[in-house]
Specification:
Largest sheet: 5 strands, mixed, barrel
Oligomer: single chain
Organism: Qipengyuania qiaonensis
Protein name: Flagella basal body P-ring formation protein FlgA
Structural class: alpha+beta
Signal peptide: 1-20
Keywords: Cell projection, Cilium, Flagellum, Signal
Strand content: 25-35%
Distance between the termini: 74 Å
Domain Flagella basal body P-ring formation protein FlgA SAF: 108-166
Order of helices and strands: HHEEEEEEEEEE
């Protein structure tokens, strides 16, 4: 009886270990990048190429974290905080993200309470932090935002595109 129990427990442990050790499916990352940019692979505003199939990344059991990366935002950082990995995906035609530029200037693209990426840019660096919008805003407008964390003060940032605001330092 004891041998049957130990055998069953060992099989269950091996099955969960094998599932946890399975590699991340590249198509999931490709789909997440396409959803984030609003454009398919190879299309203007989308990823230049699919994720390199030679990469062996641990399967991400939490939602992927996607953010624009680089001074000119020519790539997207895709990270799995739980597994501790991150990769960068090159984007084609960044100036015009398909599906993300409002039809009419002045259209509200950031809503109050929406989670936003806050870019703080200076000479030779860009810092990114998550936060939330305290008020609605259109592209090019300054709105109040609150950085995620313990602090409750608000600051003002320029709406860059949907889900993204920025502050340029002198």
């Amino acid at each position: 009886m004891r041998n049957i129990f130990l055998g069953t427990a060992a099989a269950a442990l091996f099955a969960t270990t094998a599932a946890a050790a399975s590699p991340m499916e590249h198509s999931i990352i490709d789909r997440a990048v396409a959803d984030f940019t609003g454009a398919a692979i190879g299309q203007p505003g989308g990823a230049k190429l699919p994720v390199d199939r030679r990469l062996r990344l641990a399967s991400c059991q939490s939602p992927l974290d996607l953010q624009w990366f680089g001074r000119d935002q020519r790539s997207i950082q895709v990270a799995c905080p739980r597994e501790g990995w991150r990769i960068y995906v090159a984007v084609d035609g960044v100036a015009n993200h398909a599906g993300q530029v409002p039809e009419q200037y002045g259209e509200t693209i950031v809503k109050r309470g929406e989670n936003v990426s806050i870019l703080v840019r200076g000479r030779g660096f860009t810092l990114t932090r998550q936060g939330s919008a305290v008020e609605d805003g259109a592209q090019g407008e300054w709105i109040r935002i609150r950085a995620s964390g313990e602090r409750t003060e608000t600051m003002r940032a320029l709406v860059i595109r949907p889900g993204q605001v920025g502050i340029d330092l002198p």
